[in-house]
């Protein structure tokens, strides 16, 4: 019973546990368990509530039998069970509700079978035998893709890097159906969870405070699910609480993401490049989000140079975001000349789309379907995927020798009005 992104954790587990509500089922389960070579004492009294309490502190079995006769809301209770049940467990449920729609909903939620009470010993044996066959069968995961880690870095504050990160993660998970982790490393002021209308929880804070706890089970329980294929780890740490970490927790988190997901998207504040440069060690694609301004051109140049030196394996995608119609501070052509490479994606500014996304608690990419902004984000997704799936690991060309900013930018052609105003003032 597991979401698609969860890793298989089928190591040292008991083969069978059961939680039943009535004496007849209790006696039958114990007898059949003994027939199959399983310990009869693993059959417990108590239904769903007892199962959730028990599995929250013990390892999940290979096969779990759960009696839902006393459950008032079966689907909600199954979701509660999923939160404490380790991935790979095969779940058989039993209950007294004879409803085809409930059966379909339960199977869709991840259980293997649903037995209508009262059931016979032969029915039970067949269900357990099928569950055992499912557990032992080799899992066909299809062609395995190498994990792809993408880091989204804002050249300056306010350029919309977090919006790009959440949209990219949503697109990877929804459009490409790739199980995706979104890690928001702005521990105090991150907005990724807010943009997805989620509560961030304490997962990231707990990871920073207790790096030794980080493992596959911690990832499963600490991350907040946005959908079946997207999970987020973020925080809203008190602003009176300084970030005390050497970055080891972040590195461990990314290591676990490699096992649990196909893609990781890191919303990486630019100050993290200075504090924890090792975070870029395994990044496949670096998406630098900028705007068409003089200050952003300066900082884009510096960040591209840093990536070239410190993360040469990363392929770079440059995104000009929130570009207003009309004349920006710097034209695209002049901006590209200054950074000595092309802008890969230009996302136009659309106040209506941005406002609608904020009101609905959805990503801009989802809200902008059918608009120019939506088309730009599709181009962004394709650029990121293309860079991540490239056969060779050579970094994207980022320009020639490292030059000073004054050597890169032609101030006279970019900001003539400022020059003229100054001359007039001096005159």
Description:
This is Pilus assembly protein CpaE. InterPro entries: CheY-like_superfamily, P-loop_NTPase, ParA/MinD_ATPase, Sig_transdc_resp-reg_receiver. Keywords: ATP-binding, Nucleotide-binding, Phosphoprotein. It comes from Sphingobium olei. The protein has 427 residues and is an alpha/beta fold. It is built from 19 helices and 13 strands. It has an eight-stranded mixed β-sheet, with helices on both faces. A five-stranded parallel β-sheet has the order 2-1-3-4-5, with helices on both faces. α2 runs parallel beside α3, α3 packs parallel to α4 and α6 crosses α16. The radius of gyration is 27 Å and the shape is elongated. The relative contact order is 0.10.
Biggest β-sheet, characterized?
8 strands, mixed
Strand order of the largest sheet: 8-9-7-10-6-11-12-13
Range of helix content = 40-55%
Output the radius of gyration.
27 Å
Care to count the β-strands?
13
pLDDT below 50 for ≥5 consecutive residues: which ranges?
2-11, 391-427
The shape is elongated
User: Whole-number average pLDDT?
Assistant: 84
Structural class: alpha/beta
The count of helical stretches stands at: 19
> N- to C-terminal separation?
78 Å
How large is the share of residues in beta strands?
A: 15-25%
Protein name: Pilus assembly protein CpaE
Region (Disordered): 388-407
InterPro entries: CheY-like_superfamily (IPR011006), P-loop_NTPase (IPR027417), ParA/MinD_ATPase (IPR050625), Sig_transdc_resp-reg_receiver (IPR001789)
Modified residues (4-aspartylphosphate): 67
